[in-house]
Task: inverse folding
């Protein structure tokens, strides 16, 4: 008997503690999303002049957000690769690999020379490291969610599955706190000179802590059952595409709206409000921090409601609310009134939480255990490309072309309506 077999049998005999697994999933996911979000904030504030100084400020911001989108192009590749091995080898090993991949790429960005030092190689290396970040986060979501959901009791799948979902606002909160501390204590010149590197380099400490936590987890019991019965698929992705392509497309469509709104909320608004409305960067970071706390709190509450009342009811209410919030967001922000801006962000955060929380359990329920990592990851990451992957770039391009936020509002309304229709269709298959 090998060491892996003995450790697997020992883990199987231990009582399952879903809260411990879910909490560990939350911590690790928050660290990964912190890494991902600090890139978006740096793209909004610093990457334009540092890596694309030969173009206008507006074009530099657009180029910085284009590199931001590169990470999303890599996410399905990461989801496919880690989904394959997550269904073949195990969820736990892919969680460790995804965190290590993300951490190394993030620290690498913090060490990058700028355009002034190495010329065109600076943006080339930035894009490369962003791509590697995308590979890591592409494999992260499926593993973290499945570890939490597959350890959970049947009537609390969505609640425990919401813990890795909370890692997204959790990572955003930490990222905002770090950037607030830097902008409060450094001049703009010092921040552009060296201060922007601190959030990326600090990731090294958090990644080590996250790896220690993840290495202590036991493998998912449902995956252990797949291995025990020898029911695994040799090519999980092929099986998913052949047998569950409708579920993949519907789950991708259901995710487009929340993801697009989320990345406008998390990345583009900081750039727009500071560069166009000329509002205080610290004010917007503070408001985003407050709204992220609300978003985090709503996720487990909405997920618990979906365990009690069904995914369909909760997700439909949230999706309708998300459509409405996109119509209000920019008109309220454009008033430049602090109170109205905060209210707009809070309304958006509430409905983001209502949708984002239960969607983890919904996606895992669409696929059988043998191919669940591949199927859930593929749907989620395709939706992330079509949603958040292009949203900041599209928003920047629309504003530069029209000098108005009306086209951005229409764009967000369209994608949230698409998701509303997909949620209506996909929840008919589970509830």
Result:
């Amino acid at each position: 008997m090998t060491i892996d077999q003995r450790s697997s049998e020992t883990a199987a005999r231990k009582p399952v503690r879903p809260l411990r697994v879910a909490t560990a999933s939350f911590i690790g996911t928050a660290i990964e999303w912190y890494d991902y979000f600090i890139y978006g904030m740096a793209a909004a504030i610093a990457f334009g002049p540092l890596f694309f100084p030969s173009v206008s400020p507006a074009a530099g911001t657009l180029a910085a957000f284009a590199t931001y989108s590169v990470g999303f192009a890599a996410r399905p590749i990461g989801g496919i690769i880690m989904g394959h091995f997550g269904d073949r080898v195990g969820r736990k090993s892919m969680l460790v690999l995804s965190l290590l991949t993300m951490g190394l790429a993030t620290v690498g960005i913090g060490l990058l020379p700028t355009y002034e030092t190495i010329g065109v190689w600076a943006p080339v290396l930035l894009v490369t490291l962003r791509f590697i970040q995308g590979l890591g986060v592409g494999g992260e979501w499926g593993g973290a969610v499945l570890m939490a959901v597959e350890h959970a009791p049947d009537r609390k799948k969505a609640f425990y599955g919401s813990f890795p979902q909370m890692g997204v606002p959790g990572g955003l909160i930490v990222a905002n706190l770090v950037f607030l501390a830097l902008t409060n204590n450094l001049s703009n010149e010092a921040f552009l000179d060296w201060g922007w590197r601190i959030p990326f380099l600090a990731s090294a400490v958090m990644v080590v802590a996250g790896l220690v936590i993840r290495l202590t987890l036991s493998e998912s019991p449902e995956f252990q059952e797949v291995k025990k019965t020898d029911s695994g698929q040799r090519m999980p992705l092929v099986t998913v595409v052949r047998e569950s392509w409708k579920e993949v497309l519907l789950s991708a469509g259901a995710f487009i709206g929340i993801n697009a709104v989320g990345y406008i909320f998390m990345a583009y608004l900081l750039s727009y409000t500071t560069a166009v409305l000329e509002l205080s960067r610290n004010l917007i970071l503070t408001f985003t921090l407050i709204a992220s706390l609300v978003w985090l709190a709503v996720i487990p509450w909405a997920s618990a409601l979906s365990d009690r009342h069904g995914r369909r009811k909760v997700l439909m209410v949230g999706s309708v609310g998300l459509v409405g919030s996109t119509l209000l967001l920019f008109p309220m922000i454009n008033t430049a009134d602090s109170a109205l801006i905060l209210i707009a962000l809070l309304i958006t955060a509430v409905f983001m939480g209502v949708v984002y929380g239960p969607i983890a359990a919904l996606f895992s329920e669409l696929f059988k255990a043998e191919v669940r990592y591949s199927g859930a990851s593929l749907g989620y990451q395709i939706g992330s490309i079509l949603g958040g992957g292009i949203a900041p770039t599209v928003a920047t391009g629309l504003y530069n072309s029209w000098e108005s936020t009306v086209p951005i509002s229409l764009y967000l309304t369209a994608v949230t309506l698409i998701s509303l229709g997909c949620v209506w269709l996909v929840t008919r298959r589970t509830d």
About this structure: The first helix runs from residue 3 to 13.
